[in-house]
Amino acid sequence: MTTIPFYRRKETKLVLRYVIALALVVIFVFPIYWLFAISFKTPGEIFAFPPVWYPKSIQFNNYAVLFKDGDAKTVGNSLVLASLSTVFAMILGTIAAYSLVRFKTGGENLALWIISQRMIPPVAIVFPVFLLYVWLSWVDTYIGLIILYTSFSLPYVIWMMRGYIEDIPLELEESALIDGCSRREVLWKVVFPMVRAGLFATAVFTFVFSWNDFLFALVLTRTEVATYTVQVTHYFGGQSNFWSKIAAMSVLGTIPVFITVATLQRFLVRGISMGAVKG
Amino acid sequence: MSDLKITGLHKHYGAFHAVKGIDLEVPSGELTVLVGPSGCGKSTLLRTIAGLEEASAGTIEIGGKNVTWARPRDRDIAMVFQNYALYPYLNVHENIAFGLRARKVASDEADKRVKRAAEMLGIAQLLRRFPRELSGGQRQRVAIGRAIVRDALLFLFDEPLSNLDAQLRDDMRVEIKRLHQELGRTMIYVTHDQIEAMTLADRIALLREGRIEQLGAPLDLFERPATRFVAGFLGSPKMNFLPAIIESGDVILRDGTKLTLPPGRKAPNGQAVILGLRPQHIAKAGMGTAPGHVQLPSTIELVQPTGSRVQVSMPLGGSSITAEFAAHEVTAPGEQVRIDIDMIRAVLIDPQTDEVI
């Protein structure tokens, strides 16, 4: 038996590590690949056995149908709802967090109480909300869902932004106050730039939460503001499932999130690690 | 004309009484140092002047205007913080111009002022850099630059040199003194460092437990302290304090050692006192005794050279005292010396009230 020299052992370890990493990547990426592949396949290819690993010719018919029938509009609805609720939640949440940190609004316990709102299972309140919305005539309206998503995101935004704002040295704000800024200008010229990475990271998560919501959209929308998550379920039929439509719609629903995360990746990593090294 | 006038100022934090009735008037163009041990209220006082803390009682006037309840930005002040307070996302130029922008100063006028301040502080070549690319000393220069471009009536410094190493601190101290002479502005400077206080101040306000213990020119405080606290706080090494009793014009130490007071020095006969002797006023005896001086034999216990001087410890009157000699006057512990005490500059303190008699 020969002993393996030290440097060989190190190489073996490295190769093994790469093999495992590659295997994991394949396991995680394959479903996404499969989704994309189906969306470009013809019905024949989708149901072929043995499976067709890649579409023989890229065809956009599955997408064309979604646009022709107006189903693609639901992605637009999702985009409007998620974007606007994210913007509102970020503005209100950051101001609230600033107030909690700097003016000790609500003492020590208010912040904890706020985050505890996040722990309510959505399904526990979906029917009370439905009844309220029927009474307000907010069912199937943009304003209804935007307000709902905003209020659901707020605890998270407040909690996250509170951590980032706590890390800003107080002197920076005091110095600005003396130099001639009002509180609002301090918020705008000092606090926002200081927590920029955190703002973007929090906004991405908020956006994704609202984007992925299914339960509230299912109960509170009909046709006008139905989101893509609800629309996808329409393709599961009692008799048959429209796999091509399911795949194409899912791809449409994935792309905006993918773009958002890709463009803000820089801030995402920094924002997530920002509060991590607190003294 | 005074730029700052404080009357009966109090500051409470809940049950804690941080500032207990301060009256202070700072004449135009003067640099006043607020000095004292940590927790004495000096920073609180400065922050209250700046408007960062609300006064609990009393009034603050800046430039003849009552600003007790005014917002910080309406007080015509500029402030330099201990941690520099530079904005990491702005470069040096933008940092210095921040206050001018906030006050809507025209941009070419702002540029001119930034450039002038940068040249004054020797940071003109750093204007495009970001704070993270600067050393501690350079950052503090930028922070000072940001204050001086503002052209405010009153400049506040909150321990601006505490984060710098010793060498840099000496340089910056000189710089600040020079700036004060050039600008001729009224400045309030907070420090816990007595050397900074002594070297920079036109006047020192020595604070203790929220009150001004003594206010005066640095040398006045050093040579004529009003209380035991002032006598002990200023001066390095610290003043020696020896319990004693007065008997027919002589100071008798605990072990019976007799130190004759200079003629004309009033002291209550038979009263217990504390004798305060500065290490600088105890010398190695030379030929003869000057009037008002006393000479005694002693034995060196400990020698601490500091370069040009040497600090020696020795017994006197049942206690150990510290004296400061010239560098080569003593060499080793155990050495027998004759010491010469300048009793003219000795301080007598009433142990009941801690006040200087």
Radius of gyration of chain B: 24 Å
- SSE order of chain A, one letter for each helix or strand: HHHHHHHHHHHHHH
Distance from first to last alpha carbon of chain B: 34 Å
CATH third-level topology of the largest domain in chain A: MetI-like fold
Provide the domain count of chain B: 2
- For the record, the count of structural domains of chain A works out to 2
> How many strand segments of chain A?
0
Shape of chain A: flat
> At CATH's second level, what is the architecture of the largest domain in chain A?
Orthogonal Bundle
Tally of helical segments of chain A: 14
Report the biggest beta sheet of chain B as strand number plus sense, adding barrel if it closes: 6 strands, mixed
Q: CATH superfamily of the largest domain in chain A, please?
A: MetI-like
Class from secondary-structure proportions of chain B: alpha+beta
Gross geometry of chain B = elongated
Helicity range of the residues of chain A? over 70%
Mean pLDDT of chain B: 91
Structure annotation, total helices of chain B: 8
The order of strands across the largest sheet of chain B is 6-7-8-3-9-10
Low-confidence sequence ranges of chain B: none
Kindly report the average pLDDT value of chain A. Answer: 89
Strand content of chain A: under 5%
